[in-house]
Amino acid sequence: MTMDRTEAVRLSHVSRQYGSGDNAVAALRDVSLGLERGSFTAVMGPSGSGKSTLLHCAAGLDRPTSGSIRLAGVDLDGLGEAALSRLRRERVGFVFQSFNLVPSLSAADNITLPLRLAGARPERAWLRDVVARVALSDRLRHKPGELSGGQQQRVAIARALVTRPHVVFADEPTGALDTRTGREILALLRESVDALEQTVVMVTHDPVAASFADAVVFLADGAVVDELPQPTPDRVAERMTHLEG
């Protein structure tokens, strides 16, 4: 299958089943989805609808039971674990609800950790630009325990951007933050799309968070059931009410 060059991610007939026999649980059911480069997509759905499984499969953290996934032009099916790990390190950025920072490292060292793991040196001008965009220039020597939750998530976003990834996957990135700080983080993700032409895929349960995206993909029972372009909080909330009803 050829991949549209404007697409950063393509899932084709992807299913993911856990367990077998009578205990089998279908987390994803025949999902086909293309996400354009330079776009911000929110993934929503009721609890247990397959949101995180979709993100994990698309990012190469989990392998589908069937179907195919292309990420940054690479077919994930044919990759061994070492090659898959290298692809994630070099082409994917991750932002999680729990920040996932190394407590003993400074903010600067947390940001550049993916590069060091890849044996690469940061481009100084790019690193300065990223740090400035997330407003951390005066916090680089601080360790995570000396930073607020919002500042820790800014470190995580900078870490995700510093490798110039093809896609940033964000799993409930504002879930541990207060409303005002959460909106600042969402604005940063939005800016990374608009100013840096980054591609962002974000799982969220929050209609306001989803409204920062270009489009929302809705899941229910492991399947894509709707897509909403140019989302507003009210339209997203209304659609979620129907899904959960």
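the 2nd protein, sequnce then structure:
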Amino acid sequence: MKSIWVVDDDHSIRFVLEKALAREGMPVRSFASAPELLAALEEDSPQVLVSDIRMPGGSGLELLAKVKERLPSLPVIIMTAYSDLDSAVSAFQGGAFEYLPKPFDLPRAVELIRRAQEESLREDVAEEAAAQVPEMLGQAPAMQDVFRAIGRLSQSHVTVLITGESGTGKELVARALHKHSPRATGPFVAINTAAIPKDLLESELFGHERGAFTGAQATRRGRFEQADGGTLFLDEIGDMPLDLQTRLLRVLSDGQFYRVGGHSPLRANVRVIAATHQNLEERVRQGAFREDLFHRLNVIRLRLPALRERREDIPMLARHFLQRSATELGVEPKRLSDAAIARLASFEFPGNVRQLENVCHWLTVMAPSQLVEAKDLPQEMLAAQPTGYAPEHASAPGASEPTIAASAAAIGAAGAEAWLAEMAREARRMLQAGEPEVWDQLTRRFEASLILTALDVTRGRRIEAAQRLGIGRNTITRKIQELGLDP
């Protein structure tokens, strides 16, 4: 286990915390000044950092900013006197885990440090688990094209523009491009340009000098400096203000930039990967995006398909997300019935893969049983009109009733014996649970499966489906309406 690091110029504070933490079995290492600690960071890193706010040789807030640049997820506890509460607010804004007022109650201080340690350990486990998960999943031809492009670009330093709707996984692609590039040992730094206010974005990108503006208490490195030797991912580049587009173009052209309030040019060896959900050509025509910057970014373009364009991946992705959610929550993973898979595969997913992941997390928490039925899906999915995709095979172009015909494949794919066995298990579960109208519920499912399968076989032709089932034309029309199978 890594150590708890304590930095304070007051020897008595260091001594008291060292003894208290040692009694609790927590390894501890102490420093008398910020420069001492920063030097130690070159060779090692702590599990938790506890820092005084006022020290000779550098304040706790300055130290916090420098440490967070190197170790963004490290919990940092700032010790402060009651008269420094304004500084405590600044500490929180700088990313501090918590502040500890002086003089402090020792048991409370130890408890706070233990809580920060547990949080840090959880972060370590999450990062380790994330490293074992495949970067991206997809068997659809459109995703295979993306994977091939990543492979071809693996030894390149060229600028890449990733386009696609929100939630399609543009940052995942950027991370994969970085991981498989010669810069893989360098940092990967991401920034969403649409999520940061315009007046702060310049400082975020290029950094600022101390005193450059109100609140700039210390010199701060921007994302370009942080990404030196690695990759900088600029998400939602289409929303970048025009004046910053000019500065970005200059950096991409000659590799030089200035911090806000700075007078000395800086250089950063950075590969830029940009992403947007917008049509940049249209933004250029509207005068909202610089044409020269567009051409500078648009060296290689990768388009990510929307989830509705790769519906055959939905069952695999859903199982993956259900497994991951179950692991995170420490529960058994839920399973999807054929009907639930069919309903998922027929949904439009305007939020794409991110929305599917959220649905799977919701199901892990809210679904009433281990086997998720179509009726257990979120209400917005049940209310939406299905689109007509079949995971195994889709209806021919131009066929009538594509929604009904295509949905049948997923429902009937398991085969007659498996379907009947599943029906028996479901009947037993419902009867043991005392659910009402078991006969009606199961009969409706049975009739829906028969009709959907027949419509799949006849490519949506209702009259022919009725004939093959041995029922009348009016009967099949009425049943489709009663069972809610109309597109």
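The chain has four domains: 4-131, 141-305, 308-384, 392-487. The chain is about 50% helix and 10% strand.
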